[in-house]
């Protein structure tokens, strides 16, 4: 359903135009891992290229468990995924 939204593929491609302003990293796209990540170690071609950014999805899965209250054995957990290719807005 997300791919059917108008302009969705263009939003995925925005990460190829990122630069590091004044040497300060402010986004995942500015790091070396994003620029050099490869699936096949025998063929080190980058997974995220300008030609494949609209089909190769960068998905980050996060997990966190914590105890929100003192003096209780109750804990709360959160698992969520983020499409890293999309712009912040």
Explain this structure.
The structure is a single chain. With 89 residues, the protein is α+β, with helices and mostly antiparallel strands. It has one domain (8-83). It contains two helices and two strands; from the N terminus they run ααββ. It has a two-stranded antiparallel ribbon with strand order 1-2. The longest helix has 6 residues, at 8-13. It is extended. The model has no long low-confidence stretch (mean pLDDT 79).
Topology at a glance:
Blueprint: H1 8-13, H2 32-36, E1 59-66, E2 76-83
Antiparallel strand pairs: 1-2
Distance between the termini: 19 Å
- Judging from the principal axes of the Cα atoms, what is the shape? extended
Tell me the count of domains: 1
> What class would the helix/strand composition place it in?
alpha+beta
> Beta-strand level of the residues, as a percent range?
15-25%
**What is the helix fraction of residues, given as a range?**
10-25%
Low-confidence stretches: none
Sequence of secondary-structure elements: HHEE
Number of strands: 2
Number of helices: 2
* C-alpha Rg (nearest Å): 17 Å
Largest sheet: 2 strands, antiparallel
